Structure formats: structure tokens, C-alpha cells
Amino acid sequence: MGISASARKGWLAASVVGALVLGACSSGSSGDGDPKSITFWFSTSAQDQGYTDLAKEFEAKEGIKVEIVNVPYDGYQDKLSQAAQANALPDTASVPSLDPLWVNQLQDLSSIANAEANKINKNLVTADGDKVLSIPSDVTAAGLYINKSLFEKAGVSYPTDPAQTWTWTDFLAAATKVREATNAKYDLVYDNSAARIRGWIYTHGGTGFQLGADGKFATPDAATVTALTEFAKINDDKVMPKSVWTSGQDPNALFKSGQVVAYYSGVWQVADFADSITDFEWASVPSPAQPTHATDINLGGKMVAFNNGDKAEAAKKWIDFVFQPANYTKLAQTNGYLPIETGLTLTYPFEKKAAQDAFALYIKEMELADPISSSGQANQTKLLLAKQKVEDALIKTELAKLVNGEQDAQKTVDAIVTGLNDQIK
Amino acid sequence: MVFSASRRRHNSYTLAPLILISVNVLLFLTFFVWPAIIGLAYSFTSYTGVGDAPWVGLENYQELIGDADFYAALWRTLIYTACVVPLMFVMSLGIAYLLVSPYAKGKPVARVIFFLPWLISPIIAGVIWRWLFGENFGLVNFVITELGGDPVSWQSNGDLSLMIVVIVATWAGTAFNMLLFIAALKNVPVSYYEAADLDGANAWQKFRKITLPAIAPTSFIVMLLSTLHAMKEYTYFVAVNDGGPGTENNLIVQYIYETGFKRAQIGYASAASFVLLLILVIVAVLQLIASRRKGS
Predict the structure, then answer these.
(1) Which residues on chain B are in Cβ contact (under 8 Å) with A390?
(2) Where's the ABC transmembrane type-1 domain (chain B) (predicted)?
(3) Which of A141, A328, A390, B157 is the most exposed place for a label (fewest CB within 10 A)?
(4) Nearest CB to A249: which of B12, B51, B136?
(5) In the prediction, which pLDDT does B1 show?
């Protein structure tokens, strides 16, 4: 009556296979395992050396290895969400934004943020009451770069002091003059992102997409609609190539080709340009103000530590290590960060004067910027603390329709406001 | 004793297949059936990816009926499928026909060359073609302008943009179908052609009256798989033109992705997914019926 030997063998084999499959399917929580090794996720195409160097020093000092995983930016947020659902979050990460889906799994970083020695700008940390959820690795801002060689060849001047900057009209007139004198292809390329378009709207005096008192996104003012109409108009394949905003053409590559007079992007480009542009001289110049002097002040990667069981302590230790002034100075210098800590003496390792000047200019620009410049990241924090989240990538999609002539500016802003509010019903 | 031996045989013949398919069944249930059930459940909710999933019944499906963007994506998907499937069929059959021809030279090398696109990741293939047909600094426009012409709007013209993806998908998809056709063509009995030669049939008559009917089952599989694949195309559009210009070439899968993940309307996107599933099932059933009628 007992199970035959062959049947026992069969069931044993089935059990082994089943166990293997279930093992493969299980989440493999990173909270288990060797606490002498932690994972650190971040996303960058250029600023990685600083973390690699610090990870080596951290391992030498604490005996904890930091496995750095550079995740492609597109889909990074989705990957984190999926990791949270699969109970497989990394131990630490530098993330573009926090997500209500996993915000309750974050460790409190207040001891690091409040440490006197660190001198972290507490206005920019993300806090829920006394609990500090994340500390940004750096401050970012949007700004304008020019192909200095083309300006010099055309004999056209440009401002150097943010206090006496030009208007967009002046800038575009100058850029057209340069393009025509040098046979360049375009006046300007403009990063295809929701963050950058905020800079365009604010500098044109618009308020853009702001949370109202009722916690919903309000309908933008007329200046925003006018600014977006103007933006669509200059995507005419002369002033700007239409393909950047309509078909995902890479503006960075276009500027680096040397055939574009100017590029509106962010401070993170400085480190990239310092290394990779060798065919022409470039310069960071004051952003046009028409009439508002503004930018889009945002936070670089937000450093977080997850509550991953026996790795939690090591994870927090890594974040603490990163923000110790001596270590953070190295990180900011190597990665080319605008610092979140005050009182540091930073010597960026760029050989090119253009890169050194760019940082000085960005710091001045942020001092002069209208307070609306930081409203984008402030809105995100407000939503996060209300356990809500919006994907502002739809702004890109709706603007692509506008630039492609599928809808007008009014319909575009209406669709954006509706789309944003649909997410926080 | 006889009974016992029979039972042992019975056990081994029952258990072995069960064990062998159990992994697949488990994977199928875990990664297809279970997510599909969850997806179907979400399609009746207004889930945004965060928090609760409030039940809305058929509201998402009702909204889809009046959604112009959904119809635009569906229409573009049908146009794309109608272009790419026949083109891929003709290309793969034509190349296969040449590669089994006794008159063709250098067949092994040609097979490798024609099969290479199948080995390249779709994203890489898309990037390669983007470099070729990049509007601003692409190779093709460079050649055109060097020859004195005006650059062509390969990316910012919706129809040209679609055409490029049709070419990319045909280029990449031809290889696999070509292999299927080569196998089918080699199985056509030579005696048929010899008899036709005796009757004085020309090449076209032999192709139409012998080859095409003989490879009909393979043709059916190629058409079915190509159609289903084309209606789910996503990668090439994202890699070549990001579904652009604007949203003109957002095919149905990209529409679902954008709605679900960029607009955080998981429930609505799930409903759209199930409509697509229904369409694909109808396409497959219609093709099956047509194939059986032809067979009978």
C-alpha cells in the first residue's frame, strides 16, 4: 500500500523542481543575507565616479561593501515601485522622487540631516514632521548654455552677469544672428522635460501648474498659455528642431554636434560638457528673463535608506558617511554637484574654465531666482506627504501634441490640469 | 504480478509528463493567468497604482467607447499591421525562395546575413535606424543634403515616421519567417515540379499552383504570428521616433503604457488591454476559420 520507490523518486523530483521554481519566483528580499554588503541604486549618465570612490572608502573604513547599481533613468521609478511590490527594494538609493508606495519603508535620516557638523540646508530635505525621509545629494537648476565659438565667430556679444540678463526676445534675435553668420543649423535646443518647461513658463511670467488651496492643480494663468503658444511657435525647424519635442530626438547630442547656437538644459550638463565637448568652446550664460528672473530649482538625487531588516543599520551608516562634510566635499567636487551643505570649500576638478565659471553662475542665478522657481519640487513634497503622487510625464506628452499641431495651447493646459488632477482624485 | 507491473508502467507514464510540464504550468499560472486575472479585476476599478482600487464596474469600458485617443491608436495600429504583415510575408517568402533555388550562389553566407537582424535586440535595431533616419543629423539626410537636396522630415512627418518603422520591423522580422519558409519550401516534393515541367508549366505557374498551396500551413502560421506581433508592436516605435511626432504614432500598446504608467490610470489601461486581447482573439479565430475552410 505504500508509495512505490519510483513514485517516491517522482515526487521527490517534483518537490525539488517546485522548490526551485518557487525559490526563483520569490522576491529574495534584500533584507536577508550578509549585512557586510548593501545595495545602492541610482541613475546617471555622467555623475558616477564620486559614489564609486566613496564606496571604496566606506568599505575600507566600515568593512561594508556597497554594490552600486546604475539604473537607466527611464523606468527607474517604475522599477522601484515594482521592487516595493515584490519586497525587493534596494538597501539605499538616490531617487528622482519619493513614492507613496514605498515611503513608509524609509528610515528616518533626521540624525544625519540635523547633525550640526553637516550644515545641510534643512529647507530642502523631505520631512514628514520630525522624520526626515530623504536628503538631496545636490541642488539642481535649469539654465542656458551657448556655443561660445559660434558667438565669437559671428561677433555677437552675450551677457555674463545674471543681474543684467537678456530677454528671450533679445536672446533669440542674437541666436538667429549667430546662426545666419555661421551657417549653424538651429538657434536653440531645449530639453524635452516637464522640469525644463517650467523654466520657460516662469521666465515668461507665468505661474504654470500649481497646487491650489484645495489640494488640486489649478488652471494656469493666461501668461502660461501665452508662453506655451510661443514655445510651440519656435519649434519651426529653424529656431528649434521640431523633432526634439515631437519625436524624442536627443538635444544633448544636437548641441554637442556644434551645429546649434544654444541649449537650455540643467546644471548636470556641466560635468558632461567639461569632459566631452572638445570641438568648440561653450559657456554657461544667464537665463533670459521675460520679465521674471527664474529657473527651475530642483533637488538632485534624493538619498534614502530603506528598512531592509538586518541591512538597515549598514544602509543608514552609508548615508551618514556620504554626508560627512569631508566625504560630501569629495562627492560634490567629483560629481560636479551644487552642494546641499553650506560652508564647504569646493574645488571642482574641471580643467576647463567654462565649467568652473558655470558653477559660479548657477549659484548667482539661484540667489536671484524668483521663489516660484522651487514650486515644482515643493508641490511634489506636498503631494507626497498627503500620500498622493502625480506622474508629470504627461506634461511632455501633451506638449508634444501642441508642438506637433494636434491641439492648441489652451487645450494643452486643460488636458494637463485634468490629467494631473485625475491622479489625485 | 501482472497488475503490479502494469500499475508501475502506468505510474511512470503518468508521472513523468506531469513532472515535465509542471514547471511550465506553474510558470504559466504565475506569470500569465494570475496577472491576467488581476488585470481583469483592475479593469473594473479606478486604481491609480497607489492606495485603494475603487470599484467602478463597466465605467472604464464605457469611457473607452468615447475615447478619441484610443480609436486613433487603434486605427494607427491597424494601418501599421496592414502595411507590415504583407510586406514581411512577401520579403521573407521571396528571400527564402531565392535561398532554396539551385541556381543561387553563396547561400550559407546569404542566410547568415539575412538572419543577423533577428539576433539584434529590437532597441538596438531601433537606435541603428534612428541614426540612419535621424531628421537632424541622420546618415540618410546627410547624404541627401550632400547631394544638394533638402533634408526629409523622417521624424516630424507622421506618415514618413510610420513608414520608417514599417521598414525597420520588416527588416528585423523577415529573418525568422524566412527560416520557416525555407523549411517549408524544402519539403515540397520535387516530383510535383518535375511533372509540371513535363506539362510545360512556367515558373510563375509552378509557384502559384504548386509552391503556394504546398506551403499554405506555414504561410498561415507566418500570417497569424506576424499579425499578432504587429498589433502588439511597441519597441520599434519607442526606439525610432518615441511614438511621434507628438502622439501620431502611439500604437495601442504604447497608448496602454502611457495611460497606465504616465497618467497613473491603471484601471483604465487594464480595460484597454482587455479590449486589445479581445481583438487579438478575434483576429486569431478569424484566421483559423479561414485556414480551415481553405484546408477543407
Answers:
(1) 264
(2) 74-287
(3) B157
(4) B136
(5) 45
